[in-house]
Design goal:
Helices cover about 35% and strands about 30% of the residues. The protein is built from three helices and six strands.
Length: about 140
Amino acid sequence: MEFDLINRIAAQARTRNDVALGIGDDAALLRVPSNRELVACCDTLNVGVHFPRDAQASDIGWKALAVNLSDLAAMGATPAWALLSLTLPEPDAAFVDGLVAGFMQLARKADVALVGGDTTRGPLAVSVTALGFVEPGRALRR
């Protein structure tokens, strides 16, 4: 069932010219511009903590990416790629479709390519790692 869910996610994912290899292998291959520094951030959203149990799947997907894009923006970075990891109590194609739809709606607006991730069984949680670029020495810091 895991591969069915991955295929459902991949069918909605978008790519960019700087993605040499995206969803479907053990890891992604990404082309980092030589004149940029890579900025990386990661956030996990847990049911009952970061969103209510009855939240719409699309809203959860949007929020999971949004909190990461906010972190990249705080550093002055331009977003490029994201990894999405889902922990699900049971395989739920309708939930995954909705979550990925919300995620991808924001990803399209931000020109972010979903390039991989993971699926596993457990209490509902959504983790996103976002990657972006900043000119060397120009990252905004606290």
